[in-house]
Amino acid sequence: MNYKIDVKQWGRFFSVPCSVVDDYILLSDGDFVKVLLCILCSNSNIISVENLSKQAGVSEEKAEDAIIHWSTLGVISAQTEDGKALDPQPQIHNNQVSASVGTVESISIPKSPTDAKTRVKYSTREIAEKIDANDELKGLFDAMQTVLKRIINGTEMAAILNLYEYYNYSAASILMIAEFCVKIGKNRIAYIEKVAKSWFEQGICTYSEVEAEIVRQEAYQSYEKSIMRVFGVQNKLSKRQQEYVSQWNSMGFSVEMLEIAYDICMNNTNKLSFPYINKILENWVKKNIRTPKQYEKDDTSYKNNMKQTVSGEKKDTSYDLNELQQYLLNYNAVKDGGNKN
Predict the structure, then answer these.
(1) Is-above-0.85 flag for pTM?
(2) Quick check: 71 and 78 in contact, CB under 8 A?
(3) For labelling, which of 39, 151, 152, 306 has a CA lying 20 to 30 Å from the CA of 189?
(4) Strand stretches in the chain, DSSP E
(5) Measured between alpha carbons, how far is 285 from 251 in angstroms, rounded to an integer?
(6) What is the phi/psi pair of residue 210, to 5°?
(7) pLDDT, averaged across the chain
(8) What is the mean predicted confidence (pLDDT) over 136-143?
(9) Model confidence pLDDT, tens digit, residues 165-185
(10) Contact yes or no for 63/69 (Cβ under 8 A)
(11) Measured distance CA(318)–CA(282) in Å, rounded
(12) Taking Cα atoms as reference points, which of 33, 10, 34 lies closest to residue 20?
């Protein structure tokens, strides 16, 4: 669909360089664009980072990164109030690095997951020298921009470098973690860094360990989504529901067995109840019922017992209907209004 746009003159206008749209808008952080618009709209050539962050609704660190970003790309020029030219953060663009080179201080690499507690801070010159001297690192930054589909800023480069040097992740491992995060809809460097640090603390450090963890998590996500389809759940699972699903996965129950448990729950209660289904599964664990065939055998035994006329005879089945009904009644009686399903 096409739209006819009429820009009405509500007061003053300001100009935006065409290169912002033609060359950089698809690759630039949205917050950076907001900061640039605030800069271009300003009546003064003296910009306060504090005021700029408030006007654009971003952190001061983000505002400063934006100034460096657009200055590096040549959209604006920036210098300190005393006339000193801004020392820009290095940006990878068309496989080129442009930055000053200075002295690099040594860092301490953690020997084990428990040793890693913080982030090493890198100056602009340190980042520039490391990129210039390391083709693998240069390739990593270039590949990260391809994965993220945008230019990465200096703060983000420092975070990646931290994972590479301080946490000792290989470039291939970092890129694989980034690809996994983007695949699940998390494309911020801060999230990628958080995942990498969390895995490091769990002892997931090498390329093969990272690869195995990604395979495991992808399998679990597929498991969770399949259960949601079987249960007819449209919205995101609550934290408690996620805990149930994780528990069922740890128990080793297939989606097919979850579907059987779901059908029993709906037939007996006429509504979806995660605690009720969990009770069924716990009873199955006690009786070592893990497959549909084992369930069918137990269910057949139950039906045969139902036909017997011996008074008071125990019904040997994988779940006790009366017990489950009483469990659900007790559960509803103690609910305090919170969603425990």
Answers:
(1) no
(2) yes
(3) 39
(4) none
(5) 8
(6) -65, -45
(7) 78
(8) 92
(9) 999 999 999 999 999 999 999
(10) no
(11) 10
(12) 33
